[in-house]
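cache lookup: miss for this entity combination. No prior model stored, computing from scratch. Input as submitted by user K.M.:
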Amino acid sequence: MNSCFEMPPKRKRVSANMAANVNSKPGCWKVPEVYKHHEQHNACFSRPKYRDGRRAKAVKVYTINLESRYVMIQGVPAIGVMEELIQLCALYGTVEEYRPLDEYPAEEFTEVYLVKFQKLTSARAAKRNMDEKSFYGGVLHVCYVPEYESVEDTKLKLQDRRSYVLKVARSRAKERVADAVHMESTSSESVPTSSRVFATNNPIFNSDKTGETSSFSHCSGFPLLPLPPQEYFHQDYRGNEPTEDQMGTLHDAVPPDVKQQKVQNFSSFSKDPNSEKKLASNPDSSVKLVPRTAHLEKNKRRKMEEATKQPVPDSGEPSLIGPKLPEPHKLDMNDQSLNTTVNLIRGTMKQVTSVPDLKPAEKKVKPRRRI
Amino acid sequence: MMKRNFSPETSDRFEYLQALVTEFQDSDSEEAKEQVLANLANFAYDPKNTEYLRQLQVTDLFLDMLTEKNENFIEFGMGGLCNLSMDPDCRDLILDSDGISLITNCLSNQREETVLSAITTLMNLVTPASQSQLTEPGILQCMLRFSLAESPRLHNLAAVFLQDCCTKDQVRQAEQQMQGQQMAVGIPLPKD
């Protein structure tokens, strides 16, 4: 273990809102704190129909950092139903540990529980199926509580995620090659180069050809249909990989029925009446239809950066990355002229002591986005 | 015209994502843009979409967001990069677009979620070629300060970075360089 991780918890509170919950107990079963990600965000009702999902969802981005095999369940009626609650949780995967969070602020006559699943996928299924569901007369609110993870938990979570994504990417690449070969041998009249392009564009289509990936593409096809809970159990017991596709997290962005809404969607977005046909028949050219300005911007950014490049501050004094100290308090000398003098001196001191900063290179006017 | 037997599922998915990108570019409403950006960032979580998102140059779209003024844009863009950077192809694209400096700038963001996404993204970006840039003393010192943070998520993630992405010697060096400099006490850490 590195020495820096074993620093005694003598940290000073900085912000006032954090000062309320002083808590220096180590380990994962400590006194709970209320974090912002526990809150239920307000659902968004202003989405146009084509990207309005089946369930009301808040505008929120899920990352692996937010997910966890630790979940907190709020709104459990305080009528002694802990056993029933844990049995319900166990439907979604093995529960390793659980305990009531008595110290956590709860609504009257309700309890809050912390549940640690063995696998992240179980926690995901439980959250998706139990959140906002009624339970003995109460409505449950289930959220991930990654703050209960240990360093090791976090590390494993990230490793698992990375290897899963890598696995999918690898099988995609494999099928791309296999399909390119297949296409060339079957369609002799077609231009080989474009068939290759087609192959690269269709990893899902291609992946259906092998048993390996189809095992989980059968239930994660697009558009996603809501699955009865039984299917999740089935998946959970099979192993953790397959359920990756059905995270509740993606759900909010998945259109309810793409086919039905395609017409709407394109009537509102494409000026070209033929574009639907074009898009459907030729996705690679459709990429060119909508020119992304990012490339231009990127080049511009690069050029501007080169032009304004600062001397690299490598000379023993690395620039400070991360949060900066607050500005020193401005003294008020109660006199205009004295204040001016103080400011002048302060300015000079700053110039003399300041470290060459990286900032100016990045803080330039953003190039305008043109469509 | 060449005959192409697309599975309907595949082309639908691509078209849908493209429609999102188009709406993002065409829309003048901040609210609509936030929603679409969040959609795209969530789609980036599913590795099945990464290929399409890469073709639609969504990595650059997310990187562009990091210099926006709207904090939601920054948070969602950073979240999208965190999701996309798990994929090796997208990782290489981000590195090619000089994403590292844009992302390290997000380490000083006020929102914890943005900072967490930035740390995870930086970890995802580590390759033999990029390793030296990602473990420069400035970043390591920042991680050392984060590892002293009260927020368990922040100090856990910073600890993982220090364990996984650099050598113990580098950590020791960074610690020595920090001696005499301002200590972690009093530094404003990201708010919840």
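stored under new cache key. Chain A touches chain B through 109 residues (CB under 8 Å).
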